[in-house]
């Protein structure tokens, strides 16, 4: 074999190796990037204990019903400081049947309504079941939150602490006077919210009711473009929060994706539920497989239509405080 032929052979072999390695590196890099974004845990801050909102009392150790002088059953909880009543509602029949749960929650101390992170850590891809987070924080009642950890933007204030300040969408602010209001994250600064007494912000949406008026553009809501998102249009499981009066909240969790039990709700149907309940404000939280309602140690609804919870990054919960 001549020198020229040998040189040509080596070049061909090198080009073949490069042709094989480059795609492997690209695919590997892409897979790692996806895993890093959606699977690998990134703990940005460890939360040692859930703080109390300014103006509220610091939460104490988990208090049993007898210690709090409370009365309770599977659907009710009453004490000097809390009143919680849950109804199961079913409408329609057959393929059009809908099953949902309405929790009427009244608190004397705004500090009774708190939020908690999965595994007590703020970051990406940190998840636990709603019931686990609730139990670990001594919750009497809880629902899943906005799944902030699935995205890298949004304004995230929890229990009076600012964790993320990346304005992106219509958010919800809960204040230390027991009120709540949706707002445009791109127009209202986090510092202004804190000055106004915001203790929790949720970043999902859309706003369902604002100032007593139902959002009439719910059919045209733009959704996030994160990888793996399922459209929030159509009938889906839902979780939402509404306000009737200061310190008087309504939480609604709609089951879905199980024919003959519950098809779920459209956003317009969901908004009308809150309107019929007398809410002046209402906001859509993370839904789908995340939709979960917890009360007194049990999961009330039927998550995913299979009685199986999906891990989430955060919850809203209610507990006794002193």
Please give a structural write-up.
By secondary structure, the chain is of the alpha+beta class. It is 18% helix and 33% strand. It contains four helices and 21 strands. Strands 2-3-4-5-17-16-18-14-15 form a nine-stranded antiparallel beta sheet, with helices on one face. The longest helix has 36 residues. It is elongated. The termini are far apart. About 10% of the residues have low confidence.
Output the keywords.
single chain; 322 residues; 9-stranded antiparallel beta sheet; 5-stranded antiparallel beta sheet; 4 helices; 33% strand; elongated
Please give a quick description of this structure.
With 322 residues, the chain is of the alpha+beta class. It is 18% helix and 33% strand.
Low-confidence stretches: 30-38, 50-67, 225-230
- SS-based structural class? alpha+beta
Whole-angstrom Rg: 23 Å
Q: Considering DSSP H and I runs of 4 or more, what fraction of the residues is helical?
A: 10-25%
Could you tell me the mean pLDDT? 86
Count of alpha/pi helices: 4
What is the overall shape?
elongated
Terminal Cα span: 91 Å
Strand order of the largest sheet: 2-3-4-5-17-16-18-14-15
Largest sheet descriptor: 9 strands, antiparallel
Strand content: 25-35%
The H/E string reads HEEEEEEEHEEEEEHEEEEEHEEEE
- Give me the count of strands: 21
